[in-house]
Design a protein that fits this description.
The structure is a single chain. The chain has about 350 residues and is an alpha+beta fold. It has one domain (about 1-45, about 60-340): Alpha-Beta Plaits, CATH 3.30.70.3460. The chain is built from eleven helices and eleven strands. The chain has helices at about 20-25, 30-40, 45-55, 60-70, 105-110, 135-150, 195-210, 215-220, 225-235, 270-280, 305-315; strands at about 15, 75-80, 90-95, 115-120, 130-135, 155-170, 240-245, 255-265, 285-290, 295-300, 320-335. Helix 2 (about 30-40) packs across helix 4, helix 3 crosses helix 4 and helix 8 crosses helix 9 (about 225-235). The radius of gyration is 20 Å and the shape is globular. Keywords: DNA-binding, Transcription, Transcription regulation.
């Protein structure tokens, strides 16, 4: 799983609430938004450090951050490449429902499957998209054909195995101001580190709570607090781990999320087109895949007009785009990616 220095996302447990824009605007203050942005840059930033930077009392910062967490506006989690956590095989699966089951309960059951880390109800060709993480292709076959395709209410499943996870930015609004992703001279990611079993245990604990005290992690893992701190610092420095605040996009003013399926023109390099897509401000996720489409890109937009601009002016005008299909996201389901368990 190689791509630019941006890491594959960790996901929130359960359904991400999508409040109305009026509700969001009434609830979030400018201080709330500034705190979210600081925690997106470093999810473990201290209350005292944020208080100094924002010139407000530490007790105010502590109260505000705890309120944001309690209200599910943000969740602070570990973000790491699933390949390094024991999931080298990933795929996006487009599902069509047969109408025999209510959609939301069906999606809840799909999102609870161990292999599913992301699920979204969509409009368009597919009723839903789910992302699955597997330890090998045999497990992918089992998940798709023995589990997803046989779930009551699922009429059909179309699989798009990932060839390359090209770009991911878990901070929704940071993507709006991004520069082009950093790449090495040969086009590969600078991310080359490997993780041992202890590293994976630490990430597993941080995926549940990115601000969990190192002492608590040390007691669970069975090493010293200083060793936990050193390992986390190393993994962050090697860019295989990021601890960040994942925010409800509507909380930051982004009212629409979409997936764009892209087919490349014959003779066009898929990687070159994927790289162009990463430079578009609204794009938060780009994957090259096998199947009917060559690329899937996720984008977060402010409104329908913003979506129109994205599709008509920024994606369809790119050299090498043969055709696109737009899938509007209606409801989102996430789960934190935890290290794969050893097979017995």
């Amino acid at each position: 799983m190689r791509g630019p220095s941006h890491l594959v996302s960790g996901f929130l447990d359960g359904s991400l609430p999508l409040p109305g824009q009026d509700e969001v605007d009434a609830r979030l203050t400018e201080l709330d938004r500034r705190l979210i942005r600081l925690l997106q840059a470093d999810g473990r930033r201290s209350f005292a450090g944020m208080a100094r930077e924002l010139d407000v009392p530490e007790k105010t910062v502590r109260r505000k951050v705890n309120q944001l967490l309690d209200d599910n506006v943000i969740q602070i989690t570990a973000v790491a490449d699933p390949a390094l956590l024991g999931f080298p095989v990933m795929a996006l699966v487009g599902l069509c429902f047969d109408g025999t089951q209510a959609v939301k309960p069906l999606m809840n059951s799909l999102a609870e499957l161990p292999a599913v880390d992301y699920a979204v109800i969509t409009t368009g060709r597919y009723d839903a998209l789910v992302e699955v993480l597997c330890r090998d292709t045999a497990e992918l076959l089992t998940v798709v054909h023995d589990t997803l395709a046989r779930t009551p209410g699922v009429g059909s499943a179309e699989v798009f195995p990932y060839l390359q996870l090209h770009y991911q930015e878990p901070a929704w609004d940071v993507a709006q101001d991004k520069a082009a992703p950093e790449r090495t001279e040969d086009g590969d990611s600078p991310q080359t580190a490997s993780l041992d079993a202890t590293d994976r245990q630490i990430i597993g604990e941080l995926s549940l709570d990115g601000r969990l005290p190192f002492q608590g992690i040390a007691e669970t893992v069975g090493i010293s607090e200083s060793q936990v701190r050193k390992r986390v610092t190393r993994m962050i420095g090697d860019r295989v781990l990021r601890i960040t605040a994942i925010a409800n996009p509507r909380s930051l003013g982004f009212g629409m999320q979409v997936w764009v399926a892209v087919r490349c023109r014959p003779g066009q390099g898929i990687e070159a087109l994927a790289q162009l897509l990463t430079k578009i401000p609204s794009i938060t996720y780009v994957v090259a895949c096998a199947g009917r489409f060559d690329i899937f890109a996720e984008a977060v937009c402010r409104d329908a007009q913003d979506v129109m601009r994205l599709i008509d002016s920024e994606i369809r005008t790119l050299p090498g785009v043969e055709r696109t299909e737009l899938l509007m996201c209606l409801d989102l389901y996430y789960r934190a990616v935890r290290p794969a368990e050893r097979r017995t």
